[in-house]
Structures are given as C-alpha cells and as structure tokens.
Design brief:
With 53 residues, the protein is an all-beta fold. It has no helices and four strands. Strand 1 and strand 2 form a beta hairpin.
Length: 53
C-alpha cells in the first residue's frame, strides 16, 4: 500500500500486465492515487514502479 500522500506511476516496459484491473501493454503507463497497486495477469512483463510524492 502507498503511504498517505504518496502516488505511484507504473510503466510497462515489455509484455503486458493488469494494473488495478486495467490491462496495460508495453509502452502504457498508469498513475495510481489513493489506492493500493495490484499487478496481475502478467505475460513476459517488465514493469517500472515509481513511488512519488
């Protein structure tokens, strides 16, 4: 879970993965605010996760 006041930025570098229920493919990104980050259904995925203020 993210600490209070923190956000996450998720970038899919390769493959595909579900991020909080949304399907993302290589090159896609998502900003997460006010919720946990859940990664699921990955297929040969490389994901960058940034914890930002």
């Amino acid at each position: 879970a993210l600490a209070a006041g923190r956000r996450a930025y998720v970038h899919v570098a390769r493959g595909s993965v579900g991020v909080n229920g949304a399907p993302l493919a290589a090159g896609d990104a998502a900003k997460i605010v006010g919720e946990s980050v859940v990664l699921a259904d990955g297929h040969d995925a490389e994901v960058l996760l940034f914890d930002v203020a």
